[in-house]
Amino acid sequence: MLVEKKAQAQLPTEYGIFEIMVFEELANGKEHVAMIMGYIGDGEKVLSRIHSECLTGDVFHSLKCDCGFQLQTALANIAQEGRGVLIYHRAEGRGIGLTNKIKAYALQDQGLDTVEANEALGFPPDMRDYNCCAEIFEILGVKSIELMTNNPEKLETMRKDGINVVARRPLVVGKNKYNEDYLRIKTEKMDHLFTSADLDGKNLALSFDNECGNDKHLHLDHQGEIKDKE
Ligand SMILES: Nc1nc2c(ncn2[C@@H]2O[C@H](COP(=O)(O)OP(=O)(O)OP(=O)(O)O)[C@@H](O)[C@H]2O)c(=O)[nH]1
């Protein structure tokens, strides 16, 4: 047994009413979350997402990654179907944690890509494992899933752990000028399932307007002083 269910309640959201459940991972005390909508019933063909925690993207709407956009789109897709499960997997920074992810961002500011930055800090490119997510599906009575992801490892782990993946639904959203390299590196070095049309922005279900927001943004110089950037 990898996880234990700790709490459950209703959670009204802007996408509709979910049932929220908290599962503790026994090996490390991490609190993973399942957001469930509708009646799981026979547990077959449940629209699902395993979303890895990204404080910067999910909460602060960072444009350096696609995480926040994927989270919103996954919840919206589940609401549209009226049935589904989103597991919020507490594996911040692909498992290296928030402090190390921000250290990696600092290295990326100096020109390293996401994989190189992890390696420079002494970590593999990706430290996640998804076994506890498969067990959460099992506890929920989910037998087969349509998984919203571009990451082949999530598909493989679910299959190995006995959760039948009947389909993959690509989740290509939120490309913008700040995350172009991040997305490209996912295809080139991490085997993620983007097409060249995705990377050109042609297949985006929800494209992000490059020119939106205030481009006369503030930036920090090397001393940490905030300056206007023209
Ligand atoms: N180490 C590190 N983690 C990052 C970086 N940018 C985002 N993340 C984390 O990456 C995780 C999301 O992984 P992704 O590779 O974007 O996507 P995925 O979950 O593998 O695949 P999808 O299911 O297609 O979203 C989250 O935990 C983020 O916090 C980065 O530059 N470095």
From TrEMBL:
It is an enzyme of class 3 (hydrolase). Residues 5-170 form the GTP cyclohydrolase II domain. Its EC number is 3.5.4.25. The active site is at D126, R128. Gene3D superfamilies: GTP cyclohydrolase II. Binds 1 zinc ion per subunit. Zn(2+) binds at C54, C65, C67. GO terms for molecular function: GTP binding; GTP cyclohydrolase II activity; zinc ion binding. Signal peptide: none annotated. Belongs to the GTP cyclohydrolase II family. HAMAP family: RibA. Catalyzes the conversion of GTP to 2,5-diamino-6-ribosylamino-4(3H)-pyrimidinone 5'-phosphate (DARP), formate and pyrophosphate. This is GTP cyclohydrolase-2.
